[in-house]
Amino acid sequence: MTGAVPAAPLVRPPRLRPGARVAVVAPSGPVPEDRLQAGLDILRGWDLDPVAAPHALDRHPELDHLAGADAARARDLERAWCDPSVSAVFCARGGYGAARMADLVDWNALRAAGPKVFLGFSDITTLHEAFALRLGLVTLHGPMVAGADFLKNARAQEHLRRTLFEPEAVQVVAAPGRALVGGRARGVTLGGCLSLLSADVGVPAARRSARGGLLFLEDTGEEPYRIDRCLTQLLRAGWLTGVAGVALGSWEECGPYDAVRAVLLDRLGDLGVPLVEDFGFGHCDGSLTVPFGVPGELDADAGVLRLDVPALTP
């Protein structure tokens, strides 16, 4: 697949079974050891066999915003994915750094290893896009193993657990969302962190357009004018041309929400597609897990995403 291909249903990996081995990697920022261990304990409580990658607790010797060297983070992802005993690869946290290591990954080796579950959000948006475009694989945008929401919020934990083990039970994703532009739209789910999607524009291996897609957008720590800048970049690049519908998640620490909403409406309201806010995913308490690469229908008025098929296969 290339970036020129419109959004299309992707290959769904197998669901997890009790006893499955799960590798936890740190592709972006450094991971606190106590939070990683707490997250591993939760996974063990789900009857999974989690193992932390060799460099999951590394710290870059000079750049303290990175979890170790770029090459080491890339090798951890490669080795975890290519290990035949591993059924899923979960990210420990976001932060920053995935873009630095994405082009160091041997994507041909990952493709040869076959489909597996991949989980993460925030900075991991860069890798969601890489798995979609380079491998044609469905991924899960959801809570990360060392993240506060995963460690402390029962709703976030349970929605993720059901997605992993019984995905047909969460084939309808309902949120307390409110329609900014009403209507229904059909398409294939994609998206993630707005600033990361904007940063990918012009990258040779990146998606050139969200045409045919149900676009899920959220972010954190971006002031309204920076949200405006990112959306304007996507509009000017033609990236939003042909998008079928848009669901908006959380905008934590992005300033007064009235100001954020005004920007979102100004930049997205004229697309002429259903647009729903407060959809309950991203950097928020009780974040929902949203599969990317699955066809479905977004009902903006009801605040509901109905997937045509479960995110993971039997």
Task: Write a concise synopsis of the structure shown.
The protein has 314 residues and is α/β, with parallel strands linked by helices. The chain has ten helices and 14 strands.
Topology:
Elements: E1 21-25, H1 33-45, E2 49-52, H2 70-82, E3 86-91, H3 98-101, H4 107-113, E4 117-120, H5 125-135, E5 139-141, H6 148-152, H7 154-165, E6 172-174, E7 178-181, E8 184-193, H8 194-199, E9 213-220, H9 224-236, E10 245-252, H10 257-268, E11 275-277, E12 290-292, E13 295-299, E14 304-307
Parallel strand pairs: 1-2, 1-3, 3-4, 4-5, 8-9, 9-10, 10-11
Antiparallel strand pairs: 5-12, 6-14, 7-11, 8-13, 13-14
Describe what this molecule looks like in 3D.
With 314 residues, the protein is α/β, with parallel strands linked by helices. It is 31% helix and 22% strand. The chain contains ten helices and 14 strands. It has helices at residues 33-45, 70-82, 98-101, 107-113, 125-135, 148-152, 154-165, 194-199, 224-236, 257-268, and strands spanning 21-25, 49-52, 86-91, 117-120, 139-141, 172-174, 178-181, 184-193, 213-220, 245-252, 275-277, 290-292, 295-299, 304-307. The strands form two sheets. Strands 6-14-13-8-9-10-11-7 form an eight-stranded mixed beta sheet. A six-stranded mixed beta sheet has the order 2-1-3-4-5-12, sandwiched between helices. Helix 1 links the parallel strand 1 (21-25) and strand 2 (49-52). Residues 1-5 have low confidence and may be disordered.
